[in-house]
Write a structure and sequence with these properties.
Radius of gyration: 18 Å
Number of strands: 5
Structural class: alpha+beta
Strand content: 25-35%
Shape: elongated
Largest sheet: 5 strands, antiparallel
Distance between the termini: 31 Å
Strand order of the largest sheet: 2-3-1-4-5
Helix content: 25-40%
Number of helices: 4
Length: about 160
């Protein structure tokens, strides 16, 4: 299987897994936004909203965990490029009666996108909420982890649910 130098692939000329070479790409402003949902018992959500958790502010800890995870995505996902992110923002919002919506936005000016960083941030923030609250609600469900939008780079703009 042969791939020319203009094809972005994780396979080298011999078909082995390899990190994509992005050195020929021009740096551009890039942004990605991803979400995750954590579903829980209404009483668990109420405890979080009232800051009644004995371990402290669940949203604050989840936000920090998501930011830290985005910065370390290349250590978690094989063949992912290490990136110097210029911005990582996590919004955590209680959605009555029983859910938390997490939206992670990552930005940079670089040669490769930040979709995995945004997805990792949202996922780890959700896992942190689970970890902090599992003693009171082991039935929590993390779902709907998805890329909401991305812009910049060769592939252009993507927005979930929007078809070209």
């Amino acid at each position: 299987m042969h791939h020319d130098s203009t094809t972005l692939t994780h396979l080298d000329a011999e078909g082995r897994a390899n990190m994509v070479d992005v050195s020929d790409k021009q740096p551009t402003d890039r942004e990605a936004q991803a979400q995750a949902w954590v579903r829980m018992r209404p009483a668990t959500l109420q405890m979080i909203q009232q800051n009644g958790h004995p371990k402290g502010d669940v949203f604050a800890v989840a936000r920090i965990a998501g930011i830290m995870a985005a910065k370390k995505t290349h250590e978690l996902i094989p063949l992912c490029h290490p990136l110097m992110l210029s911005s990582i923002h996590l919004e955590l919002k209680a959605v009555e009666p029983d859910s938390v919506r997490i939206v992670a936005t990552c930005r940079l000016n670089g040669r490769t996108g930040v979709e995995l960083e945004a997805l990792t941030a949202a996922s780890v923030a959700a896992l942190t909420i689970y970890d902090m609250c599992k003693a009171v609600d082991r039935g929590m469900v993390i779902d709907s982890i998805q890329l909401l939008k991305k812009q910049g780079g060769r592939s252009g703009t993507f927005e979930a649910g929007v078809t070209a």
